[in-house]
Design a protein that fits this description.
single chain; about 250 residues; mainly alpha; 2 domains; 8 helices; 2 strands; transmembrane helix; Putative membrane protein; HGSNAT_cat; membrane
């Protein structure tokens, strides 16, 4: 079967949309609590499940998407060209992470986001290139990093320079924190899954014939716009809440 390099796998975009919708829901309740409009328990219960599920799915799909773009690009581009493309793409997303760092440092009294989910995704896209060809190695390495996050979470240092890895100083507080350990492990598991389910840019499984469904098409569209939605949803939610509470 010939491979169409322009084809997108709608289920990946749809799942990414599910992740971004869950994230919007989580941040809506987070903002209600943060601005003392309504009180919610943000450390346990269903809200935490929604937030963590969104992040886990979103990061996992980064790995899956990286394998798809690599499989597609490797048919017509050299390894150097693919790496440069990933470098630019990752740097761009990391740059948006730095914008969030600047905004939170400027407008919040505490909780500056130094290495949040966009920082993680940007760096992951850049450093993932050597892993994209492999399958089982990524499964093992991903699990190792995930389990390494357990002792890392309880480890503290006297300086902040290794926050990006997962080593934080005592008393460190941030509103969003996704260090490479353990979260890059989830990206590697996504790469493993992508190489397993979509070898040579083809599905290795049967997919339901539901791409024409209106709901699926909506999710597919939202999934394609996930970065834009992520960047604008918080200002929109905060603006709406502040406007509503001003009356």
């Amino acid at each position: 079967m010939d491979v169409n390099p322009k084809e997108r796998f709608f289920e990946v975009d749809a799942l990414r949309a599910v992740a971004i919708v869950l994230m919007v829901i989580y941040h809506f309740f987070f903002d209600l609590d943060f601005f003392s409009i309504s009180e919610f328990d943000m450390h346990s219960g269903l809200i935490v499940v929604i937030g963590r599920s969104a992040a886990i799915l979103f990061i996992f799909l980064v790995g899956v998407s990286l394998t798809l773009s690599y499989s597609r690009a490797s048919r017509c581009k050299s390894g150097k060209e693919i790496f440069i493309h990933n470098l630019k793409r990752g740097a761009g997303i990391f740059g948006w992470g730095l914008v969030i760092t600047l905004v939170t440092a400027t407008f919040l009294e505490s909780g500056t986001i130094y290495f949040g989910i966009l920082h993680l995704i940007g760096v992951s896209i850049i450093i993932s290139y050597p892993f994209l060809k492999y399958r089982w190695f990524n499964l093992i390495a991903g699990l190792v990093l995930l389990f390494a996050g357990i002792p890392m979470d309880a480890a503290y240092v006297d300086y902040p320079w290794l926050l990006w890895i997962g080593l934080k100083p005592h008393g460190f507080y941030t509103l969003d924190y996704f260090p490479l350990i353990p979260w890059f492990g989830l990206v590697l598991l996504g790469i493993y899954t992508g190489n397993s389910l979509y070898p040579d840019y083809k599905r290795s499984f049967r997919m339901c014939d539901c791409e024409g469904n209106a709901g699926v098409r909506l999710l597919e569209y939202l999934g394609k716009k996930s970065l834009l939605i992520y960047l604008v949803h918080q200002p929109v939610i905060v603006g709406m809440l502040l406007l509503l509470t001003s009356f």
